[in-house]
Design goal:
Layout: H1 2-10, H2 12-25, H3 29-34, H4 37-56, H5 66-76, H6 85-103, H7 111-148, H8 159-176, E1 180-188, H9 190-197, H10 199-216, E2 222-227, E3 230-236, H11 240-256, E4 266-274, H12 281-297, E5 302-304
Parallel strand pairs: 4-5
Antiparallel strand pairs: 1-3, 1-4, 2-3
Length: 314
């Protein structure tokens, strides 16, 4: 088997060029522009030599290296982000180039050795394919999870994530006693922007609001778009009184946002905390929403929730 593998190593430059030619033939113009051809010609021969050398060893070398080889091939294919669905095609192409080269040696080298080399290379490439597929599935799973908990327009978390995090925080409060606050933020004026300038202008204003909101809060806080013109912020380790000050800052920041034609927005914030107002995730949102509507009716920007006892304290 050494002779067939040695021939592959000797011709690795030609094999790299063959892989590149096949890639060019089957790529779109956009993909061709991204292909780092110079880097492929320089670095792909070394990768081919490593894979060939692994096939010579007993047991087959490469355990734990299959992902590394796949990632290097992804980079050489112009996808610096790493393994993706296109990599499966690129691995298959490299396998085809190397196996075809071995087939051509059947008439000049020992057939039994050549067939063993083909078998061992196939085993290596099968492992690379399996690793690539597994990584693609992991990436897709993470993407689907992100899409399921993210508001597509603003990039903030959505109401589904809000419910998950509320249950998590209330569980942590029961176990460790850490308080947290909930802010419901209502934006007034987005409807007028939509009516006067269209939904695209309203969407831009929502994105600006989300940006302003994100800039006001701590990295441990969780901003959420609940839908329409209503937002929410979860504040770990905060009481209602301390969170009220943040509500004022949020209102100031958002009211600076201007829509087309210089239209301005107004903000009303409802603030509650756990366990001060409730230890129920559902009740907390309802109480914060009620506090927001009371503040709006009273002409105030920020309103605290009502405690069961009737008095509000920090």
């Amino acid at each position: 088997m050494d002779a067939p593998i040695a021939r592959l190593e000797e011709t690795r430059g030609e094999l790299a060029k063959e892989w590149l030619m096949r890639a060019l033939e089957r790529s779109s113009l956009e993909e061709i522009e991204r292909l780092p051809t110079g880097r492929i010609v320089r670095e792909l021969p070394d990768l081919i030599a490593e894979i060939a050398a692994a096939a010579r060893e007993q047991p087959i070398a490469g355990s734990g290296r299959h992902v590394e080889w796949a990632a290097r091939l992804a980079e050489l294919s112009g996808r610096e982000g790493g393994i993706d669905a296109h990599l499966i095609r690129d691995v298959s192409r490299l396998q085809s180039v190397m196996i075809t080269a071995l087939h051509k040696q059947l008439s000049t080298l020992d057939p039994a050795e050549t067939l063993r080399a083909i078998e061992r290379l196939t085993e290596i490439f099968s492992a690379m394919q399996a690793d690539a597929v597994e990584e693609v599935l992991r990436v897709r799973s993470r993407e689907l999870e992100w899409l399921g908990t993210t508001d597509e327009l603003t990039g903030l978390h959505n109401e589904r994530y809000l419910q998950q995090e509320l249950h998590h925080l209330t569980g942590m409060q029961r176990r460790y006693g850490h308080p947290f606050a909930v802010l419901v933020v209502d934006i007034d004026g987005l409807g007028r922007i939509n009516d006067a300038y269209g939904s695209a202008a309203g969407d831009r204003a929502l994105v600006d609001v989300a940006t302003a909101l994100g800039e006001c809060i701590r990295t441990v806080d969780t901003p959420v778009r609940m839908g329409g013109d209503e937002f929410c912020v979860l504040l770990p380790n905060q009481t209602a009184v301390r969170a009220r000050a943040l509500g004022e800052r949020i209102a100031n920041a958002i009211e600076v946002v201007q829509g087309p034609g210089g239209q301005v927005l107004s903000v009303t914030v409802g603030v509650v905390s756990c366990p001060q107002h409730s230890a129920s995730p559902e009740d907390l949102l309802g109480l914060a929403d009620a506090a927001m509507y009371r503040a709006k009716a009273a002409g105030e920007r920020v309103g605290l929730g009502e405690e069961p006892s009737g008095d509000v304290s920090g």
